[in-house]
Amino acid sequence: MHLTDPIIREGPQLSVHYVALDSFGVKSMCVRVETPDITITIDPGAAVEAGSFPFPIEKRHALLTEYHEAVRASCAKSQAIVISHYHLDHLQLSRESDMYGGKALFARDPAIMSAKQTDTATRLFKMIDGLPTETVWADGRKYKFKKTVVEFSPAVWHGARDAEPGTVIMTTVSHGKEKALITSDVGGPLEVATTDLICSAKARTVVLDGYPTYHLGQFATDYDLVRSIVNLCRILAAPGLKTLVVDHHICRDYRYPAFFKLAYEKAKQLKKQFGTAAEVLGRTSAVLEGYQNYGPTRWQKWAPLELAEARAVLERAVTEGKLDKDWPAAFDRWVV
Ligand SMILES: [Fe+2]
Ligand SMILES: [Fe+2]
Question: From ligand 2's centre to the CA of 333, what distance in Å?
Fold first, then answer.
């Protein structure tokens, strides 16, 4: 599989280029947005997929090399770079003049990150000192480049509220009525406040990080998976939305078509384009290709998550005091 800079065109002026994503076989959520006024690469990093990814280790490393190069080439074409947070699949921790040299760097304010991420940020900014033309802490700020508006959200949770990974910023690029929103690692989204921000942006294209089902039984729960499905269905119903790409964490588990069956059905019902970046581009996600060619890794048996079971999961979580009592009603409103 070779995916060289696949593109989704929003309209005649704004295009979204899928540079490196987990559905291509590499840990990354690197996207480039181009308008006549500015070219921006968001989250210029990539990391190797873990052992639970159904590709041999040599293939996983070969894909990393290939997509590192794709990320570098994307940065070389860009005038601005965004770093949404300081995890190593979202930035290149080295002095790469191609990637950072002569660019405006919009970065998450490192002073209000978790200690681990602040440490990575300190190392990064020391390494690339003098390369960007300017570096701004972008949280909650808005910039205009001729007719293009680039807007960053205030900090939103990286998955679950109060969890160790902390927060990220989301990026919206608009040119007239064309608008794309790239969420970074919102992990579902799980939070209603994050979903509110995504829905109210009225973007035509949303590129979103899906729930990490590969952590089910460890850090992930069945009721958070269902919460993320409710939020995905809400985003699918948002005014103006045409394409919802869900990728990154979701694409590390070959069971995702079964777990997200309800969201695929809702998208079909609402006539919205929905799927991983590979799927939306008419291809097979790498994790499914790997499963077909090399067989299973960690997961041997699973079943599609159906309506009645998903709702029962929420009811149980409410009874056990793990979720707010409003979730079953939200499920009935957005998913059913
Ligand atoms: Fe992250
Ligand atoms: Fe990530």
Answer: 30
Distance from C-alpha of 39 to C-alpha of 34, rounded to nearest angstrom: 4
Distance CA 217, CA 261 (A): 20
Q: Which residues contact 102 (CB under 8 A, 6 or more apart)?
A: 131, 132, 133
278-322 pLDDT, tens digit each: 999 999 999 999 999 999 999 999 999 999 999 999 999 999 999
Kindly state whether residue 331 falls inside one of the protein's structural domains. Answer: no
Residue 332 lies in a domain: no
Closest ligand (CA of 165): 1
Structural domain harbouring 292: 7-301
120 alpha carbon, closest ligand: 1
pLDDT of residue 228: 97
How far is the first Cα of the chain from the last one, in angstroms, to the nearest whole number?
Answer: 36
Dist. CA 214–CA 52, nearest whole Å = 8
Count the domains in the chain: 1
**Which residues, including other chains, have CB under 8 Å from residue 189's CB and lie 6 or more apart?**
156, 183, 195, 198, 208, 209, 228, 231
CATH of the domain at 69: 3.60.15.10
**Sequence-separated (6 or more) residues with CB below 8 Å from residue 315:** 328
